[in-house]
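> Could you send the T-box domain-containing protein prediction when you get a chance?

Sure thing. Input:
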Amino acid sequence: VHSKAFDYPDLARGFVSSLYSLLVDVKAQCDALPSSSLEPYPQSSIVVTLEDMDLWMQFHQVGTEMIITKSGRRMFPQCKVKVTGLIPYAKYLMLVDFVPMDNFRYKWNKDQWEVAGKAEPQLPCRTYIHPDSPAPGSHWMKEPVSFQKLKLTNNTLDQHGHVR
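Output:
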Protein backbone atom coordinates (compact mmCIF):
# COMPACT_ATOMS: atom_id res chain seq x y z
CA VAL A 1 0.00 0.00 0.00
CA HIS A 2 1.43 3.35 -0.98
CA SER A 3 0.63 6.77 0.36
CA LYS A 4 1.60 10.00 -1.36
CA ALA A 5 5.39 10.20 -1.48
CA PHE A 6 7.16 13.15 0.01
CA ASP A 7 9.73 14.89 -2.14
CA TYR A 8 12.30 15.49 0.59
CA PRO A 9 14.02 18.59 -0.81
CA ASP A 10 10.62 20.18 -1.54
CA LEU A 11 9.41 19.15 1.91
CA ALA A 12 12.53 20.62 3.45
CA ARG A 13 12.13 23.83 1.46
CA GLY A 14 8.49 24.06 2.54
CA PHE A 15 9.43 23.46 6.16
CA VAL A 16 12.19 26.06 6.15
CA SER A 17 10.02 28.50 4.18
CA SER A 18 7.11 28.19 6.65
CA LEU A 19 9.41 28.60 9.62
CA TYR A 20 11.15 31.55 7.99
CA SER A 21 7.79 33.22 7.21
CA LEU A 22 6.74 32.88 10.83
CA LEU A 23 10.00 34.37 12.06
CA VAL A 24 9.76 37.24 9.57
CA ASP A 25 6.25 37.99 10.88
CA VAL A 26 7.59 38.06 14.43
CA LYS A 27 10.46 40.31 13.34
CA ALA A 28 7.98 42.70 11.69
CA GLN A 29 6.09 42.93 14.97
CA CYS A 30 9.34 43.67 16.80
CA ASP A 31 10.27 46.30 14.19
CA ALA A 32 7.03 48.10 15.07
CA LEU A 33 8.19 48.54 18.68
CA PRO A 34 9.98 51.73 19.71
CA SER A 35 13.60 51.43 18.61
CA SER A 36 14.89 52.02 22.15
CA SER A 37 13.33 48.71 23.26
CA LEU A 38 15.26 46.75 20.63
CA GLU A 39 18.75 48.22 20.92
CA PRO A 40 21.22 46.90 19.84
CA TYR A 41 19.14 44.68 17.48
CA PRO A 42 17.35 47.15 15.17
CA GLN A 43 18.34 45.43 11.91
CA SER A 44 18.09 41.78 12.97
CA SER A 45 18.38 39.47 9.97
CA ILE A 46 16.78 36.08 10.55
CA VAL A 47 18.39 33.07 8.86
CA VAL A 48 16.96 29.53 9.00
CA THR A 49 19.19 26.70 7.75
CA LEU A 50 18.16 23.06 7.40
CA GLU A 51 20.55 20.76 9.27
CA ASP A 52 21.63 17.38 7.84
CA MET A 53 21.02 18.51 4.25
CA ASP A 54 23.39 15.78 2.99
CA LEU A 55 21.17 13.13 4.58
CA TRP A 56 18.05 14.74 3.07
CA MET A 57 19.73 14.71 -0.35
CA GLN A 58 20.74 11.04 -0.01
CA PHE A 59 17.13 10.10 0.65
CA HIS A 60 15.97 12.22 -2.27
CA GLN A 61 18.44 10.58 -4.67
CA VAL A 62 17.20 7.12 -3.70
CA GLY A 63 13.61 8.24 -4.15
CA THR A 64 12.60 7.30 -0.63
CA GLU A 65 8.98 7.80 0.29
CA MET A 66 7.35 7.88 3.67
CA ILE A 67 4.21 5.89 4.28
CA ILE A 68 2.08 7.52 6.94
CA THR A 69 -0.47 5.83 9.17
CA LYS A 70 -3.51 6.79 11.22
CA SER A 71 -1.57 6.34 14.46
CA GLY A 72 1.12 8.69 13.18
CA ARG A 73 4.71 8.18 12.15
CA ARG A 74 7.76 10.21 13.07
CA MET A 75 9.36 11.94 10.18
CA PHE A 76 12.75 10.73 8.97
CA PRO A 77 15.02 12.38 8.43
CA GLN A 78 13.82 14.60 11.20
CA CYS A 79 13.36 18.31 10.68
CA LYS A 80 16.17 20.13 12.41
CA VAL A 81 17.08 23.76 11.71
CA LYS A 82 19.69 26.24 12.83
CA VAL A 83 18.24 29.69 13.50
CA THR A 84 20.22 32.92 13.77
CA GLY A 85 19.32 36.59 13.86
CA LEU A 86 16.58 36.44 16.49
CA ILE A 87 16.36 39.06 19.19
CA PRO A 88 17.84 37.14 22.15
CA TYR A 89 15.34 38.34 24.77
CA ALA A 90 12.20 38.38 22.59
CA LYS A 91 9.91 35.35 22.92
CA TYR A 92 9.19 33.21 19.86
CA LEU A 93 6.97 30.27 19.02
CA MET A 94 8.47 27.64 16.74
CA LEU A 95 5.98 25.59 14.78
CA VAL A 96 5.66 23.47 11.67
CA ASP A 97 2.76 23.40 9.30
CA PHE A 98 2.47 21.39 6.11
CA VAL A 99 0.51 22.52 3.09
CA PRO A 100 -0.16 20.62 -0.13
CA MET A 101 2.13 21.45 -3.04
CA ASP A 102 -0.74 21.19 -5.51
CA ASN A 103 -4.45 20.36 -5.77
CA PHE A 104 -4.12 16.79 -7.03
CA ARG A 105 -4.28 13.30 -5.61
CA TYR A 106 -1.80 10.68 -6.76
CA LYS A 107 -1.63 6.94 -7.37
CA TRP A 108 1.34 4.62 -7.76
CA ASN A 109 1.61 3.16 -11.27
CA LYS A 110 4.43 0.71 -12.01
CA ASP A 111 7.44 2.74 -10.89
CA GLN A 112 6.18 6.28 -10.43
CA TRP A 113 3.46 8.47 -8.96
CA GLU A 114 0.79 9.75 -11.35
CA VAL A 115 -1.93 12.35 -10.98
CA ALA A 116 -5.21 10.56 -10.29
CA GLY A 117 -7.61 13.48 -10.17
CA LYS A 118 -8.37 16.50 -8.05
CA ALA A 119 -7.57 16.37 -4.35
CA GLU A 120 -10.27 16.39 -1.71
CA PRO A 121 -10.90 19.76 -0.08
CA GLN A 122 -8.38 20.39 2.68
CA LEU A 123 -9.42 20.57 6.30
CA PRO A 124 -8.08 23.47 8.34
CA CYS A 125 -4.32 23.31 8.53
CA ARG A 126 -2.79 21.54 11.47
CA THR A 127 0.37 22.80 13.01
CA TYR A 128 2.90 21.24 15.34
CA ILE A 129 4.10 23.66 18.00
CA HIS A 130 7.58 22.89 19.30
CA PRO A 131 7.28 21.79 22.95
CA ASP A 132 9.78 24.48 24.07
CA SER A 133 7.52 27.26 22.73
CA PRO A 134 7.35 30.03 23.65
CA ALA A 135 11.02 30.67 24.41
CA PRO A 136 13.44 33.57 24.04
CA GLY A 137 15.46 33.96 20.85
CA SER A 138 18.62 33.07 22.79
CA HIS A 139 17.12 29.61 23.50
CA TRP A 140 16.34 28.94 19.82
CA MET A 141 19.78 30.10 18.66
CA LYS A 142 21.97 28.22 21.17
CA GLU A 143 21.66 24.90 19.28
CA PRO A 144 19.76 23.52 16.29
CA VAL A 145 16.00 23.29 16.83
CA SER A 146 14.84 19.70 16.45
CA PHE A 147 11.29 18.66 15.60
CA GLN A 148 12.07 15.01 16.39
CA LYS A 149 8.74 14.42 18.13
CA LEU A 150 6.71 15.58 15.14
CA LYS A 151 4.46 12.83 13.78
CA LEU A 152 2.66 12.75 10.46
CA THR A 153 -0.74 11.09 10.16
CA ASN A 154 -3.45 10.51 7.58
CA ASN A 155 -6.11 10.50 10.32
CA THR A 156 -8.44 13.46 9.70
CA LEU A 157 -9.85 13.13 13.23
CA ASP A 158 -6.48 12.99 15.01
CA GLN A 159 -6.65 14.34 18.56
CA HIS A 160 -2.96 13.86 19.46
CA GLY A 161 -1.47 16.93 17.78
CA HIS A 162 -0.01 15.02 14.85
CA VAL A 163 0.26 16.86 11.54
CA ARG A 164 -1.95 15.80 8.65
